[in-house]
Amino acid sequence: MRIESIRIQNYKVFKDSLVKNLPKMSVFLGPNGSGKTTFFDVFGFLSDALQHNVTIALNRRGGFSEVISRDSKPHDLIKFEIKFRNPQPDKSHAPLVTYSLEIGFESGKAFINKEVLKYRRGQKTGQPWHFLNFRKGEGYAIINEEEYGKEGAEGKRDFQKVASPDILALKGLGQFEKFKIISSFRAILERWYISNFKTEYGRNISETGISEHLSITGHNLAQVSKYMYDYHRDTFDTILEKLPKRIPGINKVEAKETEDGMILLRFQDKNFKMPFLSKFVSDGTIKMFAYLVLLHDPNPHPLLCIEEPENFLYPDLLLDLCEEIREYSERGGQVLISTHSPDFVNGVRIEELFFLIKENGYTTIKSASDDQVVKELAKENQLGWLWRNRYIRGANLK
Hints:
The protein has two domains: 191 residues, 3-Layer(aba) Sandwich (Rossmann fold), CATH 3.40.50; 155 residues, P-loop containing nucleotide triphosphate hydrolases (Rossmann fold). Helices cover 28% and strands 29% of the residues. It has an eight-stranded antiparallel beta sheet. A six-stranded mixed beta sheet has the order 10-15-16-3-17-18. The two termini are 38 Å apart.
């Protein structure tokens, strides 16, 4: 599944912002406070709303009054519109699916004003089918979506009512196999992942146990390393082959299980007999190893967000890291990245580069490829250099 466009209205700094033509890997530039973290938090908000409800998602961010854009009118709604495609097993052209959500606040309570999931397949005219259509807690879902596009086919509606008007219909219906499109979109929100790796957590001595995926903070790095060594040895060996090219001297990493049921992460420097425990190696070594583990996950996250991957890393490593992330996206996981590093941006293609502009308190998102001058300059110059030298109009502080 790949998200192609996102429209955000009345969500914090995004009064009305649309970003289109998102590729598998997208890189976002912008000064501090421009809204890069807020943009990623859209998926965090939707994930919280899915796992719990809209009220909890709002309260975790300070409540409705803190989430809705400043100076909004009393009856304004927070709105999201996400367009995505599901790859087809037969490699045929996938239809463009649209998910729309509107959230309001009335009499001291949040409610879902509208929740719609729709698409048009094999038709150039006519109305798309609304596979999910709910308003204020009541609505229907289409249960015969496999017949959509066939001549004379009509949607069979299953009418439902959710327990509370602040609960997403996606939450309940997405659990049932008969609602295939609804279920697929639910999956991307459930497995959405933002990398907020903390090097101090990556040094943790973990308890014995199995962790298949790296946590957001990386506290289970030792457990995941042990899991990959035991169950995906070829992938783990690939990581070990790459590590010496990134970190000079390091030629082996071992997740050692102790007698008292703990797992130690040990790094072997080829120049010495005794390995170093994770708490004694550099922040950059820990972070690069964690990125390699994350980006070689045998079951990639459908949507991965990475904030400032350049932190703690030597600039010469960033081109390789950029390519590593791109390879991850080609294997099936869409990636959104924010960065302040021209060295990282030097590895980015022009169709992958976006930047945020904040004017009069609100933020919009622009694509670098929309500027014909930049497109021409990018043919012979690296984008990081163009950005640093202020050729990408709007991407720098004024």
